[in-house]
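Protein data:
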Amino acid sequence: MNPAAMVLSTAGGVGLIGLALLDAFATFFSHVKRGALSHALVRAMWSTCHRLPGTGALRLAGPVSVLIVLASWVVMLTIGWALVYWPWMPGGFLHTVELDAPGSSLHDSLYFSLVTLATLGYGDISPLSGWLRVVAPLESLLGLGLLTGSVSWLLSIFPVLSRRRALAYEIRLLEEARTDPDDPGPPSPLPSSVYADLTSRLVASERDLVTFPITYYFHDDDIRFALPAAMEHLLELAEEARREVSLSEVHFHGGLLLRAIDDFAASLAERFHLSNRGSTREVLEAYARDHATGVG
C-alpha cells in the first residue's frame, strides 16, 4: 500500500472510531442533538414502522431501534480499527498460519479488529510493531467499555418504561372513577395531594424522556398503560382543578400540574419533532397520533 493510501486508510479509520465514540457518549449521557447518528437511525426506524399496516410494527420499533444503535457502534468501531490496521497487515503482525492468498489483508484486518473489540483474543494474529501492541489493547478496552455502557443503558430503560406505564394507568383509573356511570352526581375535585403526586410523577417522566430519549419509541398496545393516550385526560384533570378557585390548595396544585404538562409538551415538541406551533393540547394530540393511540 502506497503512503497516500496508508494515510487515507488511517484517517478514515480514526474518523469512524471518533464518530462511534462520540455518538455512544452522547447517547449514554443524554445529549440527543449530539447523538445525531443514533437519533437519525431511530427516527428512520420509527418512520418505517409507521408506514407498515397495523400497530404491530410500532411495538417492535423500540426494541429493534436499540439493537440497530448498538449494531451501528459495533460496525463503525470494527471497520474503523480495521482501517487503522490494514496498512500494516500482514507485515506488522505475526500470523500463526500463513495467509491463504495474497490480497487477503483487509479480511484479516476486519477479523483481527472484531476479535479484539470483542475481547476474545484468539492469538492467531498478534501485533509485532511497538505502537500496534499498544493500540490493540486500547481497542479491547474500548470494546469492554462499550459492552459495560450498553448493558447499563439497557438496564436503565426498563425502569423508565415501568414508571411511565404506571403513571398512565393511574391517570386512566382516575378518569374511570370520575366518570363512573353508577355515580350520578357531578365529579368532585380530587384531593390536592393527588394533583401534587401527579405533578411530581409527570416531571419525573419528562426527565426520563430527556435522559433516555429512546424510550419515546417504545409503543404500548394496551391503552391502559399508554401515556400518549392518557395525557389529554391529565390535562382535563389539571384544567378542572385550576377552575376550583374556592379550593385554594386544589387550585394551586392544579396550576402546578398545568405548568408541568406545558413543560412536558414543550419537551416533546423540541426533541421528537412534534408540532411546536400549536397549543399544549395540540402537541399532546400529535403525541397520541404519533403513537397511534387515541383517547378512550
In short: DSSP finds nine helices and two strands in the chain. The chain has a mean pLDDT of 87. The radius of gyration is 26 Å.
